[in-house]
């Protein structure tokens, strides 16, 4: 995220945006069950999302003594990598007490070290395909770790000074505050728990799990399928991009406004790694034939999505950081009463959220290699469309409040929100 104001992934995120107060009570039960349900479904022959009543995995399917060892080892590895003096150190935005926190920008190094370790394990003959069997136990452990970490965060927040608390997470309702998160930037020494969880163990874990699914395919069928290679490469590109631009996460709502509670912890550690990559798990049990022609189409779609996503995010970031930079200086803008200007040409003159459009095109490209026989591989693109449409509406309200008439003028000039001529 270096050349972005916001990253592509503030994964967790985003669950909060879909639900409010009453949800805070139900979600900590409902979402973990959804994760287990979806994984169980991806490996069942029918893989029918609409089956009723929905069946959950049995207790025994969730147990494997290797899972907690692997999961805790993985988290420990990334804590270690976080502390290595690699990459630069950046400052976050100014906090309410006037200070700024320092963050190591070395998530991409973490991804490279993880890749090197995977290659070493392969070379040593480690059965990486066993991750397929371990998926449910690993998810169960990630959910358990999410609960334990959230309880720890909730308790320790009572010792935090009031300026260190998030504005939205202190309603006095223990369940809601536990869910939304009380403390803004919980740290142990220099180790920032929220920043660490945002992009590292879960996001890198997601692509490692994908790779495990690919190796399972190799075990079963001798070589990885084209569909599996496409899904793995697309999602690796997305994760690598997020980590390459890691610095931009420092200006996201997750870091700047949201407390660190169950919603973010669970989103980062369980929801993203175990639901965003369902396509790869699905392909292990439901092999698909992708013709070269279809593969080229899907590649172009993902390439186009990535291009729009990256270019539009970078353009806005560049404009916000330095509006006189040659790459943005020639763009047409309108003035606002706040002193900030709004872009009305370039990507931000095409639709009002070109970055969401690019993200959604990529999400669709991740599902297409899985064919049209099942709804399950489309879970991510459906969930993500709902999420971004809701997020866009919320951002729109905030911009209208911030920029007033100038925002109306922008909407008049650029009438479509995300999809040109549609929405
Ligand atoms: P955006 O990058 O879309 O930023 C919205 C802000 O940009 C507005 O509040 C406004 O802030 C500024 N802005 C809006 N219009 C203009 C304009 N015309 N000119 C200049 N500035 C403008 O925020 P998000 O955090 O929602 O999205 C960032 C990325 O993260 C996206 O690519 C999105 O797809 C991705 N994402 C991914 C998720 C995932 O789970 N994979 C979840 C959520 C997001 P201001 O004027 O104050 O600068």
Give an account of the 3D structure.
- A two-stranded antiparallel ribbon has the order 1-2.
- α2 crosses α6 (174-180), α3 (66-83) packs across α5 and α13 (292-321) runs antiparallel to α15 (354-367).
- A hairpin with a 5-residue loop joins β5 (333-335) and β6 (341-343).
- 59% of the residues lie in helices and 4% in strands.
- It is globular.
- The protein contains 17 helices and six strands.
- The protein has helices at residues 15-18, 21-42, 66-83, 107-123, 130-156, 174-180, 193-199, 201-221, 226-244, 253-256, 262-275, 278-285, 292-321, 326-329, 354-367, 379-403, 405-413, and strands at 88-91, 102-105, 187-188, 191-192, 333-335, 341-343.
- It is mostly helical.
- Mean pLDDT is 90; it is low at 1-13.
- The two termini are 27 Å apart.
- Bound molecules: NADPH dihydro-nicotinamide-adenine-dinucleotide phosphate.
- One of its GO terms (molecular function) is Delta14-sterol reductase activity.
- One of its GO terms (cellular component) is nuclear inner membrane.
Features:
423 residues, mainly alpha, two-stranded antiparallel ribbon, 17 helices, 6 strands, binds NADPH dihydro-nicotinamide-adenine-dinucleotide phosphate
